[in-house]
Design goal:
CATH architecture: Roll
CATH class: Mainly Beta
Order of helices and strands: HEEEEHEEEEHH
Number of domains: 1
Number of helices: 4
Length: 256
């Protein structure tokens, strides 16, 4: 009886040893993501901008006594603008035929580009920085006050920068002022001047090629970006703002 018990205990111990054996786990392989999160490599990814990194500049053509433009125009940085907006609308008319409830297609019509400015009012009319307007004010001794809707069609260039040295630009062409308004109230801490405008064309935001980018893209990508960057009037303003940015901000990267 004792031998039977001892043998059964021995068999149960053997079974416990077999059941306690843990299966061999394969080694855990962790794949490294091909894009790290080093800020120095942010040029490889899509970047964004805020209103704090945007500068709006207008190019006002100089009109001679014969009514024709003379010279390249006057470049003015809008340091008192706080909001710039635009919207586009294009007419689309459905094409219908007998026997069909739904349209067979659509025909595209004209496009309308419009938007608004909002300026913070300081101590002078926003557009009285234009040289021709100041000359008119001086000649007429203040009895004739030129207004924004008397301006010839002008262009707006908005340049964008961020802390990593990325740059973009947007242009609005042939801007003409349509409406203007201002409100002075005891409930407002600042005075705002609002304008609505219509425009003849627009170039949405495009990337500007920066010599400080740490990524070396293929040659065809560089050529394409350069062609996009220098395609429409207003590039002199973008180049000026780029040099200003490089002088005052990008050189910070050399300190670290």
């Amino acid at each position: 009886m004792a031998d039977y018990i001892s043998n059964s205990n021995r068999e149960s111990d053997d079974v416990d040893e077999l059941t306690d054996t843990k299966p061999i786990q394969p080694p855990l392989v962790v794949e490294k993501h091909k894009h790290d999160h080093n800020p120095d490599n942010y040029n490889e990814h899509q970047v964004s901008f805020s209103g704090a990194g945007a500068v709006a500049t207008i190019i006002v053509p100089t009109i001679g006594s014969d009514g024709n433009p003379t010279g390249p125009g006057e470049v003015i940085t809008l340091g008192d603008i706080q909001t710039l907006s635009y919207s586009m609308h294009r007419e689309n008319s459905p094409v219908r035929t007998l026997g069909h409830v739904n349209p067979r297609g659509f025909i595209k019509g004209g496009r309308t580009i419009a938007g608004s400015f909002i300026f913070t009012v300081f101590n002078e009319y926003a557009f009285y920085r234009i040289t021709q307007y100041r000359e008119l004010l001086a000649r007429r001794n203040g009895f004739f006050a030129p207004l924004a809707d008397m301006l010839p069609p002008f262009d707006i260039v908005v340049t964008f920068f961020n802390e990593y040295g990325n740059m973009s630009k947007m242009k609005i062409f042939g801007v003409t002022i349509v409406d203007e308004g201002q409100t002075v109230s005891i409930d407002d801490l600042i005075i705002e001047q609002t304008y609505t405008y219509m425009a003849r064309g627009i170039q949405p935001m495009v990337k500007m090629v920066s010599p400080h980018e740490r990524v070396n893209p293929p040659d065809e990508v560089v050529e394409r970006n350069l062609d996009i960057q220098y395609n429409i009037f207003g590039d002199e303003v973008s180049e000026y703002m780029t040099k200003f940015f490089e002088r005052n901000m990008i050189d910070k990267s050399n300190r670290f």
